[in-house]
Amino acid sequence: MTAALKVGIAGLGAIGREVARKLVGGYIPNSVLAGVTVRDRAKAEAFLKEIGCKAPVLSIAELAGACDIVIECAPAAVFADIAQPVLAAGKKLMALSAGMLLRHPELIALAKENRGQIIVPTGALIGFDAVSAAAEGDIRSVTMITRKPVKGLLGAPYLVNNNIEISGLTAPLRVFAGSAREAAAGFPENVNVAAALSLAGVGPDRTTIEIWADPGVTRNMHRVMVEADSARFEMSIENVPSENPKTGRITALSAIAALRKMTAPLRVGT
Question: Would residue 270 count as lying in a domain?
Fold first, then answer.
């Protein structure tokens, strides 16, 4: 028997809790929850006890030593603090705050230096396989249009810094148009999908994005259009928000699916 994959979770918000439940419930074969790291130790211990889990609450350095892979489910502001010890230890990091990789390219070099690996799951988008395949040829353009309920964008740094008020909207408002790099900086908790899309394709400066605050929608909606020498295609998805309105329920499921692929006898998709 192959040794079970030892999984660590950094952050027990909506996504981290869902991944923990699946691991503890045995829904991901040949994988175990080996530990978690959080800001609120007492709250984490109470949750772990509730789901019948004896995994310890560790520091991030301890978690990096105890696990084969750490799933980053924490606020974007602490991404580098989580990633650095994991990658320095030569382990795998599943990054859900993918936008922070655009701010910290040194982490990719750190992973290479120590034979670690950064895994960016599909998350709230679809079609990364198609984009990655097209990128082996010539992609001429990648455009993404995101529409979110107002509460899913409230507090974004770009809106605050530019005095854009959206709380009282009665009609859709385009609040941003620019590159994926700019979007990731201005909306670090809201559009990690744009950063992930750019990393799969033509990079953050050639991937363009529009962000709309729309009081008429209840789902996080993304439409992607790709023009390449090998194909022209469009993809769209409407995600049901999780208990955290900034992210969709499918994000946690994407991380779970990526974990499953790591130990599965059959792996479908690139």
Answer: no
Cβ count within 10 A of residue 89: 17
Q: Is 268 among the domain residues?
A: no
95: containing domain: 5-124+250-263
Cα–Cα dist 167/92, whole Å: 39
Q: What is the mean pLDDT of the chain?
A: 94
Residue 24 belongs to a domain: yes
Which residues are marked as active site? 222
Residues 65-92 have pLDDT tens digits of: 999 999 999 999 999 999 999 999 999 9
3-state DSSP call for residue 173?
strand
Cβ-count burial 13-42 (b if 16+ within 10 Å, e if not): bbbbbbbbbbbbeeebeebbbbbbbbeeee
Residues in the chain: 270
Question: What is the rounded CA–CA span in Å between residue 91 and residue 1?
Answer: 22
Rounded to two decimals, the pTM is 0.90
